[in-house]
Amino acid sequence: MDPILKALELITEPYTMGVMLLAALFGLFVGAMPGLTATMATALLIPFTFFMDPIPAIAMIVTAVAMAIFAGDIPGALLRIPGTPASAAYCEESYAMTRKGHAERALGILLVCAVIGGLTGSVVLSFTAPVLAEFALQFSSFEYFWLACLGLSCGVVISSGSTLKGFVSLLIGLFVATIGLDITAGYPRFTFGNTELLGGVSFIPAMIGMFAISEIIRYFTATTSLPRPPQKAMGNIFRGLGPILYRYKRNIGRGSLIGAVVGILPGAGGDIAAWISFAISKKFSKEPEKFGTGNPEGLVDAGASNNASLAGAWVPATVFGIPGDSITAIVIGVLYMKGLNPGPMVFVNSPELIYAVFMSFFIANIALLPLGFIAIRMSRQILKVPQNVLMPVILMFCIVGSFAINNTAFGVTVMLIFGVLAYVMEENGVPVAPAILGIVLGGMLEDNFMSSMIISDGDLLGFFSRPIAATLGVTTLALWLIPPLLSLRRRRPARAE
């Protein structure tokens, strides 16, 4: 059967559609709760994927994340608290519209732009990934080594905060990736005699800890409580929306494309895409003085951008096995757990899986329009759920999920250790995303480095012996060397003065 028809049959099965509907409701709820991120929603869904086939499991994650990213706009507009980091860029702008009495209009703009951005990102993913996968079939260990280096470097350069702290975070992740048996010599590294560590640090409990437990710790250590949601009922969010969207139609297209491209960069994600789009919108606006006063122009750009980046992040994840953001890092872990190695061979061996992923993005973003409308109408009730009840329930899911990986308490211990580690890192301004990339790509980096050294008989010039490998190598080395050289050049005249 044609892989596309088979994928359509699998994704439209009543069971898969039911899973996607429940995941949509879950994603909207988690995204609308301040402090609960889309990544945390993904981490909490992992225990449920144990009992599912790959397609329902992946469709569930895609749907939940698409909903959660938009839902993060709701508390941002109503309470001035972004539900997810992806909504932080335009939180002030949307809240300014609420103070002017236009909360419905702000949320209507964000909802429609999120749907358009998500569909644009889905189109980019559907057309880009197969072409790149066909190209990637020619790659050897030399190309994959440089791709891993490039992905890790991008994760440090474009992560939030200082580059030095991003580099430290990356080293932490790479160190964690070295724990366990040496893949070449079979020698145990940093196991301290613990047999549970011989296979390395279990990826899923570590992810649950870094994204869920750290948020729980942050909640219990916070000294301020959330403000109360507004008492006024929501009106028609689509009233007067047509002229605004027509006026800013170019902004919608620009924000969607920027989001999709930024999403493809390893380690970027929706929050960086939203910040870049918002800044570009203000830079090229004919009315930049209106930004900060409740101007819909910035909302249009950034609202489309963060949702478009979600699908873009799946391009490197599916084609090369390199996560585009923290969410796809977890997804790669789920694919490994299901016996599927992300990379170009997935397009050859399981094409129906790839097409089902594309379709799930389209279905999720189309469903976002009616479900997002319902979520906005119920926003007052959602925001009233007490977090002192919610957090213990989340903790229970985390413990069950981590225990169920190998049915041992060791997974729970790993989860707690990495939860505390992520909390300490974030409290000191050290981004977590580079560490995640290090954990995911560390094994791939070492494996391809050792394979390449064996193939080239220890000759380092072998890493530049193939045209694509040489191009990737020169690009990576330029990324490492040019920024410090430019910084050194700028300092010299200053010292001379």
From TrEMBL:
<feature type="transmembrane region" description="Helical">
    <location>
        <begin position="54"/>
        <end position="72"/>
    </location>
</feature>
<feature type="transmembrane region" description="Helical">
    <location>
        <begin position="257"/>
        <end position="280"/>
    </location>
</feature>
<feature type="transmembrane region" description="Helical">
    <location>
        <begin position="167"/>
        <end position="185"/>
    </location>
</feature>
<dbReference type="Pfam" id="PF01970">
    <property type="entry name" value="TctA"/>
</dbReference>
<feature type="transmembrane region" description="Helical">
    <location>
        <begin position="21"/>
        <end position="48"/>
    </location>
</feature>
<dbReference type="InterPro" id="IPR002823">
    <property type="entry name" value="DUF112_TM"/>
</dbReference>
<feature type="transmembrane region" description="Helical">
    <location>
        <begin position="107"/>
        <end position="132"/>
    </location>
</feature>
<feature type="transmembrane region" description="Helical">
    <location>
        <begin position="144"/>
        <end position="160"/>
    </location>
</feature>
<keyword id="KW-1133">Transmembrane helix</keyword>
<feature type="domain" description="DUF112">
    <location>
        <begin position="18"/>
        <end position="437"/>
    </location>
</feature>
<feature type="transmembrane region" description="Helical">
    <location>
        <begin position="388"/>
        <end position="421"/>
    </location>
</feature>
<protein>
    <submittedName>
        <fullName>Tripartite tricarboxylate transporter permease</fullName>
    </submittedName>
</protein>
<keyword id="KW-0472">Membrane</keyword>
<feature type="transmembrane region" description="Helical">
    <location>
        <begin position="468"/>
        <end position="488"/>
    </location>
</feature>
<keyword id="KW-0812">Transmembrane</keyword>
<feature type="transmembrane region" description="Helical">
    <location>
        <begin position="197"/>
        <end position="220"/>
    </location>
</feature>
<feature type="transmembrane region" description="Helical">
    <location>
        <begin position="353"/>
        <end position="376"/>
    </location>
</feature>
